Amino acid sequence: MPVEFSDSEDVKSTFGEEDKNSLMLLPPSEDEQSEEDDQIDPTDYGEHEMWGEVFWNNVHGEAVELCLFEERLMTSDMRGNDAGEYEAAASRVRRQGEDHIRITVENRARDGRDTMGNSLECYLDARTLNLIEQKHTQWVKTPDHRDMRKQVNMTQDEAGVVTVERETTEGGLLKRARWRHSTTTGRTRIVTEGHNVLLQRLMMYFDLRHDLAYRKIDSDSGELCRVLYKTLPMRKQTIDDVEVHVSGIERSLASPRGLPSMWQSYFLADGQMTLMVQVGSSLVTQVERVPELILKEVPDPKPHFPKRPLVWSEDMEMVSRYLDRKAALEADHESYLRHHPEVRDIVSDFFQHMLINRPDDVVGAAAKYFSSFAKHVDTDSGADKDRPALISKCPFGYT
User: Fold this and answer.
1) Which of 260, 292, 304, 323 is the most exposed place for a label (fewest CB within 10 A)?
2) Is 83 exposed, middle or buried (0-12, 13-18, 19+ CB in 10 A)?
3) 234: phi then psi, degrees, rounded to nearest 5
4) Burial annotation 260-273 (CB, 10 A radius, 16+ → b, else e)
5) Which of 250, 186, 251 is nearest to 223 (CA)?
C-alpha cells in the first residue's frame, strides 16, 4: 500500500510571527495563560509546582551518580503469563566535548492479540539536567494489520527553546507535525520521558514526601499538559518469596483531549524499580528477583600516623644491622692493617714525636713531620697518578 501524506495538521508553535521570515518569542498574556491553565487542569497546582522547582534546584551531582544504573523487569498478564519486558538504563557519557546523561528505555509487551512497544534515547546536560535531545518511538501491531508507529524527536537549543517533530504512520497514512515551546517563559519546568526515569529515582534517593508538578509536551496535540508526581504510602511486596518494603510514586499525565493517563510504580530505597502498572491496563511489570541495593561508597578516612622520634637502640632490627655492620668494618680494618704493618709504625712514631716536642701549632708540626716522607715518594709512579686530586690540597702539605 503506498504511503499517503496528510496535511491536516499544521506546524504549531508557541512563537508568534512578526513577519513571514522571522519568528520571535511572544509571551502569553495573563488571560491566555489563565485560559491555558483552565484547559489543562482546573485544579490549582501552584504548591506542587513550587516543590517541583525546589526539588529540581536541590539535585546535586552525587545523587545523580547514584541513580546511574541499569534495570530489567518482566511484564506479565493477569494470568501470570509472560507478556514482555522492560529495560531502562542511565549512564554518564562524553559527547561533543561535554558531559551528558544518557537515558535509554526499551519496552515490549503483548496485550491480547496486539503487540506493542516503545524505545527511548534521551540525552540530558550532566550539570543542569536540561534536555539536549530525545528520540522516542512507539509502535503497535494488530492482527488486522492496522499498525501504528509514532516517532517524536525533541531538541532544546541554548536559548531554552524546545523543538518537537513528530511523524505518525497509521494504516498507511503518514502525518507530520512540528511544535516549538520556550522553557524560559513558563512558570513550570518542562520535562520529558527521559526526565521521568531519572526523576523517579531521585525522588526515592531523597525520600521525598511532597507531591511535584511539571509540564510535558503532549505528543498528539503539541500542547503543554501537567505531570503530577504523587507519593504513595510504603507497602510490602513479595519478590521471589522474599518480602521487601517498597515506596511508591503515582505519575498522572493530564491530556488536553481526553482522560488523564496514570502509572503507579514502586521502588526500593535506592531507586531501583520493583513494580510498575498503568491504571486500567491488564499488564503488570515487576522484577523477578530482589535487586542488590546500591549503597553509597564512603571512602575510609585517611589514617594518621603521628611522627615519633627515632630511638634506634630500642629497635632490635636496627641494633642487629648496626652490630653486623660494625663487625664487618672492624674485620676489614684489621685485614688492611695486617697487610700494611707500616701504618701502625708511622702513626706510633708521629704520636711519640708530638708527645715529646709538644708543639703549640699541632697542624703545622704535623705538616712538617709528614713532609719529610715526601722525598721518599716517587711522584711519577702509576700509583701516584691514580691518587685523587683532593689529596694535593691536603693542609699537611702533601703533594
Assistant:
1) 304
2) buried
3) -65, 145
4) ebebbbbbbebbbb
5) 186
